[in-house]
């Protein structure tokens, strides 16, 4: 069973067949997935990625302006996005190429709606083990639904930029997120020149989430590389 928390994840569906997009969208919404956007081309998909930051993707291999494998590679530049390839091509070579590139699963059309739901749910449970709106850190918790930090019995409000930065870090919890990736998450397509602003936001985030901001244990700096968020559990 998939929790309501996981059903709120932002899902991007990319397929050039309008009827299939509408079918999959209907299947997902009937199951309770309310945050779903669709695209018919790779260009549309990348635009949605930049503006909306999907947390799960269903990609077709054959697209009118490219292919799902290339699109998947470009999407990964902004952070890891759990991905299911959905395609009419069932050759073993394509299957291995998708999985070898880092995709989480591969389905061949035609498919059963229930099988799609089972696979989507399995990937979400595996990739987002935290099935609570609270993300536990050392000495505090993040409540992304309310854009707040819980620390010492208090609720501390996050600003919009702090929220976007923490979301980008949480999507890649335990991994290094580069300065460019964080700037793009907070300021969009033209992130250059925001490094000092990012440092100021990181400092304020640490004041909110860390017990001792001068000695952070949850939001770490990797000199010359970027930042890393350490999640408990």
TrEMBL record:
DNA-binding region residue numbers: 132-231
Gene Ontology BP term (one): regulation of DNA-templated transcription
CC per GO annotation: cytosol; protein-DNA complex
Keyword DNA-binding assigned: yes
UniProt entry keywords in alphabetical sequence: DNA-binding, Phosphoprotein, Transcription, Transcription regulation, Two-component regulatory system
GO MF, one example: phosphorelay response regulator activity
Sequence positions bearing 4-aspartylphosphate: 60
DNA-binding as UniProt keyword: yes
InterPro entries in the record: CheY-like_superfamily (IPR011006), OmpR/PhoB-type_DNA-bd (IPR001867), Sig_transdc_resp-reg_receiver (IPR001789), WalR-like (IPR039420), WH-like_DNA-bd_sf (IPR036388)
CDD domains the record matches: trans_reg_C
Domain of life where this protein originates: Bacteria
Domain Response regulatory: 10-124
Ranges of residues in domain OmpR/PhoB-type: 132-231
Function comment: May play the central regulatory role in sporulation. It may be an element of the effector pathway responsible for the activation of sporulation genes in response to nutritional stress. Spo0A may act in concert with spo0H (a sigma factor) to control the expression of some genes that are critical to the sporulation process.
Protein name (Swiss-Prot/TrEMBL): Stage 0 sporulation protein A homolog
């Amino acid at each position: 069973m998939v929790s309501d928390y996981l059903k709120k994840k932002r899902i991007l569906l990319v397929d050039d067949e309008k009827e299939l997009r509408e079918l999959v969208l209907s299947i997902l919404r009937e199951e309770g997935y309310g945050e779903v956007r669709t695209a018919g081309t790779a260009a549309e998909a990348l635009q949605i990625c930049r503006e909306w930051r999907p947390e799960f993707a269903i990609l077709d291999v054959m697209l009118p302006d490219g292919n799902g494998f290339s699109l998947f590679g470009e999407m990964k530049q902004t952070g890891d996005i759990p991905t299911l390839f959905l395609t009419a091509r069932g050759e073993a070579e394509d299957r291995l190429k998708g999985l070898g590139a880092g995709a989480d699963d591969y389905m061949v059309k035609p498919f059963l709606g229930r099988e799609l739901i089972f696979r989507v749910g399995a990937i979400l449970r595996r990739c987002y083990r935290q099935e609570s709106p609270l993300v536990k850190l050392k000495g505090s918790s993040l409540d992304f639904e309310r854009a707040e930090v819980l620390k010492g019995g208090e609720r501390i409000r996050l600003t919009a930029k702090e929220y976007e930065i923490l979301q980008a870090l949480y999507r890649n919890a335990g991994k290094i997120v580069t300065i460019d990736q964080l700037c793009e998450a907070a300021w969009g397509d033209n992130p250059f020149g925001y490094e000092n602003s990012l440092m100021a936001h990181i400092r304020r985030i640490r004041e909110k989430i860390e017990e001792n901001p001068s000695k952070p244990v949850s939001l770490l700096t990797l000199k010359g590389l970027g930042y890393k968020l350490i999640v408990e559990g």
